[in-house]
Amino acid sequence: MPEESEPTCLEGNIINRDSKKIPVRITFAPVRSLDGKLLGFLETVEDTRVLQELSKKIGQAYSFGDFIARSPQMERIFQILPVIGQTHSSVLITGETGTGKDLLAEAIHQTSNRNKGPFIKVNCGALPETLLESELFGHQKGAFTGAVENKPGRFRLAHNGTLYLIEIGDLPLALQVKLLTFLDDKIIYPLGSTKGYQVDVRMIAATHRNLELMVREGLFREDLLFRLNVVRIHLPPLRERGEDIRLLLDHFFHTFTSRFGKRIRGFSNKALRILLEYQYPGNVRELRNIVEYAVNICLEEQIQPEHLPAYLTDIESWNRVESGAEHQTAPPSQTDQEDGEANLNWAAIERKMIIEALVKAKGRRSKAAALLGWGRSTLWRKMKQFGIDA
User: S-S: 169 plus which of 65, 150, 181, 209, CB 3.0-4.6 Å?
Assistant: First the structure.
């Protein structure tokens, strides 16, 4: 090492007398006299196991399951999730569309002692009432036209596990009564059967609706709300989560550049400013879709504003986003029109993404679905929705 050398730091591993590998940091530093003459070198060896454990704990504080966050609001939720997971109480998750209610429900299941049991999801708004009742509670053969065999239903399939009801606010009143009965005695009665079946199921429900308002309007049973609302977790909208926006932008950027094999260095300053100032009415789901779209179409070293969905850089749309407070006092017809325009913009973006993925996949739907990060059934449904033939 020459006389003008500066301290040098290296990290590696050593083997101790018990043949165990110990992570260490080794530092070599010159030792000089008062007049600057080199006298020798000092070597220090530092055990870094404690630092690695601390780093791991810090990383865990920023994530829980598939959640990634460091905002105080989300950190408080992360802290109570392990406790909630170890109970059998019903959980009600509230929050705007796209805030991650499904991820939270699954995280609760995975931290519970039911995690080896099934995690069954049912979307209460996806089926008409008659089919939804059969889907939830099952039916006996001959219970109705087309019932050619016995069906167990989702409650019985979720035995010893968790049943997650998506958009509980869409559950018809008649089924609310039947669900309330189950929560009281833990017995389900399939359609067409007088025999009840005891099932051990933890209930998690989620909604973006205001259930208290629905109770006042007679659209949701107050007694059912009380039974579901044992443990309540509200997921804040992304616009209130501060630094989480940048954290999620970087996370999804690395996810999609890796998945698509893109060599993009990051976001330009202009693109990043737009992304950080946007209000994200679609929350984390919208942010994820925006980054996926940008990475898909970017052929440069950095993502520029022109690689972002058009509605982000459109002046009129941008003004509507920034005047969100005005929407609250705007006439219903104006608000509905603006919401409709936003939906049309996003629909056009999704349609373009699907077509580009199909072109890239040379018409192979399974590969196109993989490029988009969707399941094949999701791609097929959206192709049908947008009238895309391939």
Answer: 209
Domain membership of residue 126 (yes or no) is yes
Q: Are 308 and 274 in contact (CB under 8 A)?
A: yes
Which two structure tokens, joined as six digits, stand for 188?
């389900």
The last residue of one of the domains, among 217, 236, 255, is 236
Closest residue by Cα to residue 111 from 90, 84, 89? 84
Contact present, 288 and 252 (Cβ < 8 Å): yes
Which pLDDT value is given to residue 6?
64
CATH of the domain at 47: 2.10.70
d(CA 161, CA 364): 37
| Overall number of domains in the chain | 3
Nearest Cα neighbor of 151 from 161, 164, 138 is 138
* pLDDT, mean of each 10-residue run, the chain (390 residues): 61 80 79 81 76 51 72 89 89 95 93 93 88 89 79 92 95 93 90 88 95 95 94 95 92 92 92 93 94 92 92 60 42 41 61 82 82 77 81
In a domain, 149, yes or no: yes
Q: Where are the beta strands (DSSP E) in the chain?
A: 8-15, 21-32, 38-47, 63-64, 67-68, 91-94, 119-123, 161-166, 187-188, 197-198, 201-207, 231-234, 266-267, 302-303
Q: What is the pLDDT of residue 47?
A: 75
The answer for 167, left when phi > 0, alpha when psi is -120 to 50, beta otherwise, is: left
Task: Please choose, from the candidates 126, 184, 204, the residue with its C-alpha nearest in 3D space to the C-alpha of residue 378.
Answer: 126
Whether the pTM exceeds 0.70: the reply is: no
Residue 103 · residue 65 · CB < 8 Å:
yes
Eight-class DSSP state of 330: S
Q: Over the range 272-301, which residues count as b (16 or more CB within 10 Å of their CB) and which as e?
A: bebbeebebbbbbbbbbbbbbbbbbebeee
- Bridge partners (DSSP) of residue 69 are none
